[in-house]
Amino acid sequence: MPSLRSVHGQSDIGRIRERNEDALALEGSYGVAVVADGMGGHPGGDVASSLAATAAAETLAVAMRDRPDPEGFVEQMRAVMHDAILGAHAAIRKRGEQEPHLDGMGTTLTAMVTHPETGTWVIGHVGDSRAYRIHYELMDQLTRDDTWIQQQIDNNPSLAPARARHSPYAHLLTQCLGLEDAPTPQILDGTATPGDRFLLCSDGLVGMLADDTMLSIIHAALSGNGEDPDTPIASLLEAANEAGGHDNITAALVSFDND
């Protein structure tokens, strides 16, 4: 079973936006990474994302401090992940009630927690930030975007995802954290294999770079810099900015040992 090697991440404002409405929270020793993307054009998008990322990461880290039994890790942490996401939603709602000018703020959230010794992981997701699993030359999107365009793709398999990503409705969310209706999180689990990496990122990255481009950048950065986990992240953010940097860009990489 592979053990956790590292948890690293970075966030960048991009080249167009006046403020960074993405948020990143990492608890590396507990195998926790959280990416959130505040809703652009809404009041307090940056407040919502920061609240959500911090609250979710803290809930997950507290659960990991109790050293959950590896045998019951998935069942326990699926429940904790669900509570972490809904707790983050509640924190945003409460802040909006306390500060009416922030009413209506919302955010996406994608979070991961892993057992450091066994490689077992749980991912929670709401919105259109994403989680990918990278296994050498393969890169698979694990999460499903909560967007109107994804619903159209699901209902019409002939609609190419590459074409859909350039639709003016590509980022129209069907659910997020912070609005009146509580979200229904997508929660996934599995076990890493040797050499696996998991990429969590905001749509500011995937909106600028195709999946195969991201994979190539990660491999190139790792092969040229001795497995430094910060290098592929920095390379991804740089490439997204070079492609236009139309949005805030945030990425986290959770890496496992090769044996």
How would you explain this protein's 3D organization?
- This protein has 259 residues and is an alpha+beta fold.
- It has one domain (4-256): PPM-type phosphatase domain (Phosphatase 2c, domain 1, 4-Layer Sandwich).
- It is built from seven helices and ten strands.
- Strand 6 and strand 7 form a beta hairpin.
- Helix 1 packs antiparallel against helix 2 and helix 6 (211-224) crosses helix 7.
- The chain starts with a strand and ends with a strand.
Give a short synopsis of this structure:
Helix content is 35%, strand content 24%. By secondary structure, it is of the alpha+beta class. Strands 1-10-9-6-7 form a five-stranded antiparallel β-sheet. Strands 2-3-4-5-8 form a five-stranded antiparallel β-sheet, covered by helices on one side.
The fraction of residues assigned to DSSP E strands is 15-25%
Q: H/E series, N to C?
A: EEEHHEEEEHHEEHHHE
Mean pLDDT: 92
Widest β-sheet, arrangement of strands: 1-10-9-6-7
| Rg from alpha-carbon coordinates | 17 Å
Q: Globular, elongated, flat, extended or rod-shaped: what is the shape?
A: globular
Sheet with most strands: 5 strands, antiparallel
CATH fold title: Phosphatase 2c, domain 1
How does the helix and strand content classify structurally? alpha+beta
- Runs in which pLDDT lies below 50 for 5 or more consecutive residues are none
Query: What share of residues is helical?
Result: 25-40%
CATH architecture: 4-Layer Sandwich
How far is the first residue's CA from the last residue's CA? 7 Å
Q: Looking at this structure, what is the CATH superfamily? A: PPM-type phosphatase domain
CATH class: Alpha Beta
Number of domains: 1
Number of helices: 7
| Number of beta-strand segments | 10
